[in-house]
Write a structure and sequence with these properties.
190 residues, 6 helices, single chain, 7-stranded mixed sheet, alpha/beta
Length: 190
């Protein structure tokens, strides 16, 4: 019985790893700087509780999710558009959950305490659709942490216009290095 289960799991993993890459966001070589700064910001200023469920989008190999896990034991869920990066992360950090997805996230409603987007928000192709899906999978008191480049013109107004159609609100914006980090939560008044 155990052998059949192992074979089934292996087949499932092979199917997963043979999927084509998705196109969630535009990737540039300069993103490496921003993702490094976002990782530093999250590790320094965001508080995590024991066994919180954390979804990371665009985690680039999973190293900093593992760093969070070393500080506070979290349940990490890693989502990226690149099978190669996910495969690398799977070998290094097998205790996390992995997925490659389009904008229809495969998670149940109200699953995550925190959603961290470690990719410039303006680089996502379908920002409105992404925010709607993140709102769906976010717990009532959960937080979405994302960033935009400081040089991005009218970034807070653009983000405010996007969240008008959701039940999310910006609760904090912080200038950090050459970017602005936003924290969003459910708007309880609506």
């Amino acid at each position: 019985m155990k052998e059949k289960k192992l074979i089934h799991q292996w087949i499932k993993k092979v199917e997963f790893l043979n999927r084509p890459d998705e196109t969630l966001y535009k990737h540039r070589s300069t993103d490496i700087l921003y993702t490094k700064w976002m990782s530093q910001y999250v590790l320094k200023y965001i508080h995590f509780k024991f066994h919180e469920k954390v979804l990371c989008i665009g985690c680039h190999g999973g190293k900093w999710v593992s760093d969070i896990d070393k500080q506070v034991n979290i349940k990490g869920f890693i989502l990226d558009q690149s099978i190669r990066l996910l495969q690398h992360a799977m070998h290094l950090y097998p205790h996390f959950n992995y997925d490659i997805s389009n904008y229809q996230l495969s998670y149940k409603n109200r699953k995550f305490h925190k959603v961290i987007i470690n990719q410039r928000f303006e680089s996502f192709y379908e920002q409105q659709l992404l925010l709607t899906e993140l709102e769906r999978v976010l717990k009532k008191k959960g937080r979405i942490i994302l960033f935009q480049r400081k040089s991005f013109i009218l970034s807070k107004q653009n983000l405010s216009q996007l969240i008008e159609h959701t039940h999310l609100e910006i609760i904090q914006s912080t200038a950090y290095k050459n970017m602005v980090v936003y924290e969003l939560k459910h708007n309880i008044k609506q």
